[in-house]
Design a protein that fits this description.
This protein is α/β, with parallel strands linked by helices. It is 33% helix and 24% strand.
Length: 249
């Protein structure tokens, strides 16, 4: 299943103001892996994700998704393979109703009628947002918008799911619901998050970015046990690995 593979080689990105956001970033993610990309604010996490389906173009380096090098000619195929959920759901919701937003992707795949209805209903059901089907997106809460934005991607049936801070803005119940959804997604998952307890629960592998560079890439548990690494990258252990604040254990 080579179409599930993500390979990044020596990726560099410099913004127009001269800020170097990524410096020679390289990694390879294979089919079925669940990988977290973590780091402090400004580490380059969102910039990296925006390269994975061509929302940002590379200054140097190369990206390959499965059998395809990422370039202008392969972009349509890659965007069918890589489903991207942005950090801000307002970047993804632009249609008059929730149904229209979730149906937009399947319609662009050439699906019609009952097939589109089925895709929309299934995606909204999976994120617990079926009751929002006919609402305008601007009437939704932040957490509701997040769930609908995820549904717009799930409706495309991507092979690779990429999510930028998926639990931000979610209440505890919606967070747990999303984590259950991610556990059930059996293809490749890549996401950034400051929710390190979610990372510990869902990801066998973690990549640590610091000031645009990969500082570590390995077992999530090993990385969270490396206190010197975490301190140097302005990170802390997940709460589940910290001592009890009451009894000290």
């Amino acid at each position: 299943m080579s179409h599930h593979i993500v390979e990044v080689k020596n990726l560099r990105h410099v913004y127009p103001d001269g800020t170097e956001a990524l410096r020679s970033v390289s990694f390879r993610i294979t089919h079925g892996e669940s990988v977290a990309i973590i780091g402090a604010n400004g580490a380059g996490k969102s910039t990296l994700l925006l390269h994975l389906n061509g929302y940002l173009s590379t200054n140097e380096g190369a990206i390959r998704i499965g059998d395809f090098p990422l370039n202008k000619s392969t972009l349509p195929e890659i965007r069918r393979t890589v489903g991207m959920v942005f950090q801000d759901p307002d970047d993804q919701l632009f249609m008059p109703t929730v149904f229209d937003d979730v149906a937009f992707g399947p319609l662009n795949l050439g699906l019609t009628g009952a097939e589109v209805e089925e895709r929309v209903d299934d995606a909204l059901s999976r994120v617990g947002a079926g009751h929002l089907r006919d609402k305008p997106p601007y009437r939704l809460s932040g957490g509701e918008k997040k769930r609908v934005a995820i549904a717009t991607v799930l409706a495309m049936s991507p092979d690779i799911l990429v999510m930028d801070e998926p639990t931000s803005g979610l209440d505890p119940f919606a967070r747990r619901q999303l984590m259950a959804l991610l556990k059930d997604f059996h293809h490749t998952r890549i996401f950034t998050s400051h929710d390190l307890d979610m990372v510990l629960e869902l990801c066998e592998r973690t990549i640590v970015l610091h000031e645009g560079e990969v500082r570590a890439d390995g077992s999530t548990l090993d990385i969270f046990q490396d206190e010197a690494l975490l301190r140097s990258c302005r990170l802390e252990k997940p709460f589940a690995m910290q001592g009890c604040p009451v009894c000290g254990r």
